[in-house]
Write a structure and sequence with these properties.
The protein has 229 residues and is mostly helical. 70% of the residues lie in helices and 3% in strands. The protein has two domains: 63 residues, Winged helix-like DNA-binding domain superfamily/Winged helix DNA-binding domain (Arc Repressor Mutant, subunit A, Orthogonal Bundle); 144 residues, Four Helix Bundle (Hemerythrin (Met), subunit A), CATH 1.20.120.
């Protein structure tokens, strides 16, 4: 697995620092509760401290980092209510995207979704979590992109990482093979131009993930075992 905290180029430094740190948190390279020192992170990324501080401030707003002034900056621990809220918002945004996009989809978009689901299925069988999540994102991004709804896309991009960092370690036990079938049903509905069916299946996909993340965190809170991230 590639190191998300590799040195970055000199262009768009704040954005690159933000993307690298967010990926490291989602992938568990920066674990829940890990203390974050801007000087150390800047060294690892090959940047000055300024873009790293900007990135940490942005991640704090998004709920992946928490800061106590003059005390600590650290990665947040997953909290059931916060993850549930994020999953609910992401689900609604994907439903909106599906409803808008389905009447606009052409053969190339349907083919792209089928190919993404094939990659998803292969990755699940290979227990390749990163490839599976990437293919899952690609499949749903076809609908989000086709919808042309930039507000929905931005909302999805903001809140999905809160869900993904819980999901990634549970992926093999979360009914991922069932997701392949749900994806296939979604694609068939899109190909048939049935927007309402596509919305229902999209809701089913994301509601299942919402419940999965919720259950995992509740078990961790009761047992004292850290939630998988």
């Amino acid at each position: 697995m590639d190191d998300a905290l590799r040195p970055v180029g000199r262009t768009l430094l704040r954005d690159r620092a933000y993307e690298s740190l967010r990926e490291a948190i989602v992938r568990g390279e920066l674990a829940p509760g890990a203390l974050l020192k801007d000087c150390d992170l800047a060294d690892r990324l090959g940047l000055s401290r300024a873009p790293v501080r900007d990135a940490l401030a942005r991640l704090t707003v998004e709920g992946l980092v928490e800061t106590k002034p003059q005390s600590y900056t650290r990665v947040t621990r997953p909290v059931s209510r916060i993850v549930r809220d994020a999953a609910s918002v992401v689900r609604v945004m994907h439903e909106l995207a599906a409803r808008t996009a389905v009447p606009l989809l052409g053969p190339e978009a349907i083919r792209a979704m089928r190919e993404a689901n094939e990659r998803f299925a292969a990755a699940v069988l290979a227990s390749d979590v990163e490839a599976a999540l990437a293919a899952d994102d690609e499949l749903h991004q076809v609908l989000v992109g086709a919808s042309g709804n930039h507000a929905a896309a931005a909302t999805i991009a903001r809140y999905t990482p809160l869900i993904r960092r819980v999901e990634r370690r549970l992926f093999g036990d979360s009914g991922s093979c069932g997701s392949v079938e749900l994806h296939a049903r979604l694609i068939d509905a899109c190909a048939a131009g049935d927007a309402e069916a596509a919305v229902r299946i999209t809701s089913e996909i994301w509601a299942a993930l919402e419940q999965l993340a919720d259950d995992a965190i509740e078990v961790a809170e009761v047992t004292g075992i850290p939630a998988p991230v």
